[in-house]
Design goal:
It contains 20 helices and 21 strands. It is an alpha/beta fold and about 500 residues long.
Length: about 500
């Protein structure tokens, strides 16, 4: 049988499918005419849904072994099992459009993972959310197959009263909520009921039952209720959704700094060749990830802070180094051959590793190209954050000499040419009010809670209207840094933010 990884195969325990169907029947009073499990596996949801006493049941399953299992398991005349691919199966033609319940657990795997596995279990490749430009090239258009399946079902059954009850990652459910609004697909309600995926599937991921009902009316609710399954039932955790056109993970905001950042948040350098491009200093010598001693000119070698190293509020220098081949995206790299022959020789020695990079961003780009490079990369001071941590810690990054610190592409930063301005920005970002706000607009169950999209929403003009210098003093104490902030310094920063003096970075 095809491996779990390829098909996102996590069979739902019968005990849990029973609990879900009991909840739908007894708590939500859902009584469908037709029940469909679009990727039925062993058919546990189909079996549990028999308590609905529907007129017809449909199970669709791609894997031959599971199909044959279900054919033997379900012999009732009103249960129809198909050995088909849900991506091209005309489901609505079979079910009709009245009182349909779509229930199940679609595969939890991304299209990029399937591509890496050379899987044939893929929908037709398309940028199905219509991302543009760099987002489409660099992975924003990567999507969960589960999300694709659910959206396909929604497309097929829109403008009907169909109910969907699907297990998925919580992040997938929120993406679908946003997509319903983007496409203006009418729905009556949209609830997320979280459950313990470690207990049910033995995986570490924030997961939920996505329960929604499509509508024949012009209905587009701006918010969604968030619940959690517990042994004694479900309880409400909160509400997320849109407010004044912005998307919030928690609509009960304590501090509202929402707007547009006066600083441009940037992502660190991207090269997709860490064993060659990233170096370590050992006893004063450079070594690459292959443990080769590297003898190259120092000009293109810069200190590197990977986002996993962001653990202190101030970081000065690093034992890690990165080779930066360009000053701006798509710069011709032939200059390296002329000016830095040892570096050119080293890069060409490992040219095959560059040619193996799969991302389409390197197609038709100069030799040894990178991304995430520009004037901002070479700023003396940076205030950076890891995209991965649940608690946002912002670090002031610099060296004692003139060489700028580079971040990797899993981190984000704003740039400064002045230490004092960078220092105050770091304090503002680590203050309690700003931290509280960021947690309310980020989704902490995401793999990368803090992205450019999230950070760019922080309006520093609103921040300086609220924050006092006393709060920044408290932040210094909390961070364990030496006292440095003064009224004069904070005034300088305020003038910088309010005025038209902002850096070009």
């Amino acid at each position: 049988m095809t491996g779990k990884r390829e098909l996102g195969d996590y069979q739902t325990p019968q005990e849990f499918t029973d609990m879900v169907c009991n909840f739908l029947l007894k708590d939500r009073h859902i009584r469908p005419r037709v029940v469909v499990e679009p990727t039925c596996g062993k058919g546990n949801f189909l079996n549990s849904s028999l308590k609905f006493d529907a007129e017809q049941y449909y199970g669709i399953e791609l894997q031959k072994e599971y199909y044959e299992f279900c054919k033997q398991r379900f012999t009732q005349k009103n249960i129809n099992i198909f050995n088909k691919n849900i991506f091209d199966f005309p489901l609505k033609n079979k079910t009709g459009t009245t009182d349909v319940l779509l229930i199940g657990n679609p595969p939890w795997v991304t299209n990029s993972t399937l591509s890496n596995l050379d899987s044939k279990n893929l929908p037709n490749k398309s940028n199905f959310k219509s991302f543009k430009g760099f987002d489409a090239l660099t992975g924003t258009s990567n999507f969960d197959i589960c999300e694709y399946i659910i959206l396909q079902l929604i497309d097929e059954y829109q403008n009907t009263n169909t109910t969907l009850g699907m297990l998925c990652k919580t992040s997938v459910a929120r993406n679908i909520f946003e997509e319903l609004h983007r496409r203006k697909i009418a729905f009556e309600y949209f609830d997320i009921i979280e459950f313990d995926s470690k207990k049910i599937f033995d995986i570490n991921a924030s997961a939920c039952l996505l329960l929604m009902k499509l509508s024949t009316e012009e209905s587009l609710p701006l918010s969604s209720d968030l619940y959690e399954f517990q042994d004694e039932g479900i309880y409400k955790k909160g509400k997320f959704g849109f407010k004044e056109g912005k998307f919030y993970s928690n609509l009960d905001l304590t501090f509202d700094f929402d707007g547009n950042s006066q600083f441009e948040w940037r992502q660190g350098v991207k090269h997709d060749n860490s064993k060659i491009m990233e170096l370590n200093i050992v006893d004063g010598q450079l070594y690459n990830g292959l443990q080769e001693k590297v003898d190259i000119e120092n000009d293109l070698v810069f200190p590197l802070i990977k986002s996993s190293m962001i653990k202190k509020p101030i970081i000065i220098d690093s034992e890690k180094r990165v080779i930066v081949t360009q000053k701006f995206v798509k710069e011709n790299t032939e200059y390296i051959k002329l000016n830095f022959p040892k570096t050119w020789k080293y890069l060409n020695k490992h040219v095959e590793s560059f040619e193996k990079r799969k991302s389409s961003i390197y197609k038709n780009a100069p030799k040894f190209s990178m991304f995430g490079v520009g004037d901002y990369s070479y700023s003396r001071y940076k205030v950076g954050i890891s995209g991965f941590y649940k608690k946002p810690l912002f670090s002031l990054l610099y060296t004692y000499d003139l060489k700028p610190i580079m971040m990797d592409d899993t981190g984000y930063f704003i740039s400064f040419d002045d230490f004092d301005l960078a220092y105050v920005a770091m304090l503002c970002l680590n203050s309690v009010p700003v931290q509280s706000f960021l947690k309310n607009i980020a989704f902490l169950d995401e793999k990368r809670p803090y992205t450019k999209k999230v950070l760019q929403r922080l309006d520093f003009k609103k921040v300086i209207d609220v924050l006092s210098v006393d709060e920044l003093v408290i932040t210094e104490v909390a961070l364990g840094v030496d006292s440095y902030i003064t009224d004069e310094l904070y005034t300088l920063f305020k003038d910088y933010v309010i005025g038209n003096q902002l850096t070009l970075f």
